[in-house]
């Protein structure tokens, strides 16, 4: 999944910021494992010695002590990394590196673990739910693979970060028009999208957690197929509507809609039939388009549509599972079809509980990051200076260009392409030219006042 996010974001940003976004994605995996091992797992699944506090957070097994299920630890670590890396797309091309470090520690180490404890720990208050009627029915938090605790959380923080940071320079013009600031590589972004699609199959299928018992293998396969169907319906719906409205077949919009559909499947891909995937996928595509357009109208700059994809897909997933679930007393639509009054009441109660859970996730995610982002903004460490943003973050912050000019090697003036060494022992070579005609290159050199050279270090010299 991290690889998919890295390529998707790299392709969606301008060439001058590719190294920056790749560095963030690489470090996100590394920072997250330290943060989750140190604190996150303990808050999520460590037993709490104070019984009255156990529904809200864990309080043991810090620094990986006494963990008995390392397979679950690894799986949960990757969920934590996914919640964190969602945010980088919303603030791409303008966030200070310290901002990335802060939320890469905060989200997987504190924000996400508390939410996963609420919803997935056996003693969490969201999972415990409520007894309905005479106690024969019990609501619970329906979310198999993180539509809420992962994607709704990450999408909420993405919105807050993008809003507080403000749009990229030149994104919105003074006359109210939208300036095109397109990514530099559609193929790279598409590759990332395909990798994420594959990753969702692994996570949604793997969230069933067991294939060794009779019948479990079929449940895993069903979850994976339903995930694909939700993504397909969301993508096709969005593609057709965009063609009708704008007359174009767009790959990036289609890819985002597919991801939104797969995210919406996270909540209940193990308990819906084919018609349920249609409802879930179509709804996710429509919600994605609506939220993406709303962000532009509100002049909130989200280069990757992280809010529309993850918040929209996650929230709809938590609602949709309560509409289409085939589990007894969980799905509103199947209960209405059967006409069973008791089942209808139970399914409506379950829907209400999942909506309440959604609100709890949004409030907690906002409560944690708002003061932290506000402090970073106050001390001037939230966003890069305007000059660096205009010229690109790669060279100034990292000293590495994603696409060095000399690496292309086209249009060199062959008569002057020989390597030379200056007086300090540094190898020098002419800068690659944009002129394919050598005579024009020589003319430009004369106008510039002489030969243009670019230095580079070789073999440690």
UniProtKB/TrEMBL annotation:
<feature type="domain" description="Ammonium transporter AmtB-like">
    <location>
        <begin position="1"/>
        <end position="403"/>
    </location>
</feature>
<feature type="transmembrane region" description="Helical">
    <location>
        <begin position="73"/>
        <end position="91"/>
    </location>
</feature>
<feature type="transmembrane region" description="Helical">
    <location>
        <begin position="249"/>
        <end position="268"/>
    </location>
</feature>
<feature type="compositionally biased region" description="Basic residues">
    <location>
        <begin position="452"/>
        <end position="461"/>
    </location>
</feature>
<feature type="transmembrane region" description="Helical">
    <location>
        <begin position="98"/>
        <end position="120"/>
    </location>
</feature>
<feature type="transmembrane region" description="Helical">
    <location>
        <begin position="353"/>
        <end position="376"/>
    </location>
</feature>
<dbReference type="InterPro" id="IPR029020">
    <property type="entry name" value="Ammonium/urea_transptr"/>
</dbReference>
<keyword id="KW-0924">Ammonia transport</keyword>
<feature type="transmembrane region" description="Helical">
    <location>
        <begin position="185"/>
        <end position="203"/>
    </location>
</feature>
<feature type="transmembrane region" description="Helical">
    <location>
        <begin position="223"/>
        <end position="242"/>
    </location>
</feature>
<dbReference type="GO" id="GO:0005886">
    <property type="term" value="C:plasma membrane"/>
</dbReference>
<feature type="transmembrane region" description="Helical">
    <location>
        <begin position="308"/>
        <end position="333"/>
    </location>
</feature>
<dbReference type="GO" id="GO:0097272">
    <property type="term" value="P:ammonium homeostasis"/>
</dbReference>
<keyword id="KW-0813">Transport</keyword>
<dbReference type="GO" id="GO:0008519">
    <property type="term" value="F:ammonium channel activity"/>
</dbReference>
<feature type="transmembrane region" description="Helical">
    <location>
        <begin position="26"/>
        <end position="46"/>
    </location>
</feature>
<dbReference type="Pfam" id="PF00909">
    <property type="entry name" value="Ammonium_transp"/>
</dbReference>
<feature type="transmembrane region" description="Helical">
    <location>
        <begin position="140"/>
        <end position="164"/>
    </location>
</feature>
<dbReference type="InterPro" id="IPR001905">
    <property type="entry name" value="Ammonium_transpt"/>
</dbReference>
<dbReference type="InterPro" id="IPR024041">
    <property type="entry name" value="NH4_transpt_AmtB-like_dom"/>
</dbReference>
<keyword id="KW-0812">Transmembrane</keyword>
<feature type="transmembrane region" description="Helical">
    <location>
        <begin position="274"/>
        <end position="296"/>
    </location>
</feature>
<comment type="similarity">
    <text>Belongs to the ammonia transporter channel (TC 1.A.11.2) family.</text>
</comment>
<keyword id="KW-0472">Membrane</keyword>
<protein>
    <recommendedName>
        <fullName>Ammonium transporter</fullName>
    </recommendedName>
</protein>
<feature type="region of interest" description="Disordered">
    <location>
        <begin position="440"/>
        <end position="461"/>
    </location>
</feature>
<keyword id="KW-1133">Transmembrane helix</keyword>
């Amino acid at each position: 999944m991290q690889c998919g996010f890295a390529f998707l974001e790299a392709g969606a940003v301008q060439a001058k910021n590719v190294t920056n976004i790749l560095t963030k994605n690489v470090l996100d995996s590394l920072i997250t494992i330290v943060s989750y091992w140190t604190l996150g797992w303990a808050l999520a699944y460590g037993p709490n010695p104070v019984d009255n506090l156990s529904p809200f957070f864990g309080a043991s097994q810090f620094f990986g002590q006494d963990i008995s299920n390392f397979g679950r630890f690894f799986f949960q670590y990757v969920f934590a990394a996914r919640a964190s890396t969602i945010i980088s797309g919303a603030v791409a091309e303008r966030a200070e590196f310290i901002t990335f470090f802060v939320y890469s520690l905060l989200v997987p180490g504190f924000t996400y673990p508390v939410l996963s404890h609420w919803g997935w720990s056996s003693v969490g208050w969201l999972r415990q739910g409520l007894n309905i009627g005479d106690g024969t029915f019990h609501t619970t938090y329906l979310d198999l693979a993180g539509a809420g605790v992962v994607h709704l959380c990450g999408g909420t923080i993405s919105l807050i970060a993008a809003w507080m940071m403000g749009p990229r320079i030149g994104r919105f013009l003074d006359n109210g028009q939208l300036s095109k600031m397109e990514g530099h590589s559609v193929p790279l972004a598409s590759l990332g999208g395909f990798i994420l699609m594959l990753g969702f199959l692994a996570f949604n299928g793997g969230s069933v957690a067991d294939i060794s018992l009779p019948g479990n293998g079929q449940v895993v396969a069903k979850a994976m197929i339903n995930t694909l169907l939700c993504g397909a319906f969301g993508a096709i719906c969005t593609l057709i509507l965009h063609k009708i409205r704008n007359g174009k077949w767009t790959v990036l919009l289609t890819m985002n809609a597919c991801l939104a559909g797969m995210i919406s499947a996270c909540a209940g891909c193990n308990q819906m039939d084919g018609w349920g995937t249609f409802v879930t996928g179509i709804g996710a595509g429509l919600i994605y388009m609506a939220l993406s357009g709303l962000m532009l109208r509100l002049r909130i700059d989200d280069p990757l549509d992280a809010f529309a994809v993850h918040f929209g897909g996650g929230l709809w997933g938590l609602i949709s599972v309560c509409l289409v679930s085939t589990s007894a007393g969980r799905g509103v639509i199947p209960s209405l079809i059967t006409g069973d009054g008791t089942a209808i009441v139970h399914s409506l109660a379950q829907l209400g509980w999942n909506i309440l859970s959604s609100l709890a996730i949004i409030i907690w995610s906002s409560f944690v990051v708002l003061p932290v982002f506000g402090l970073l903004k106050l001390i001037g460490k939230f966003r890069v200076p305007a000059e660096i943003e205009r010229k690109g973050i790669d060279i100034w912050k990292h000293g590495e260009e994603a696409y060095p000019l000399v690496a292309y090697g086209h249009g060199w003036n062959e008569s002057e392409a020989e390597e030379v060494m200056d007086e300090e022992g540094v190898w020098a070579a002419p800068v690659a030219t944009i002129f394919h005609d050598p005579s024009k290159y020589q003319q430009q050199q004369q106008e510039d006042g002489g030969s243009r050279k670019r230095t580079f270090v070789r073999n440690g010299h």
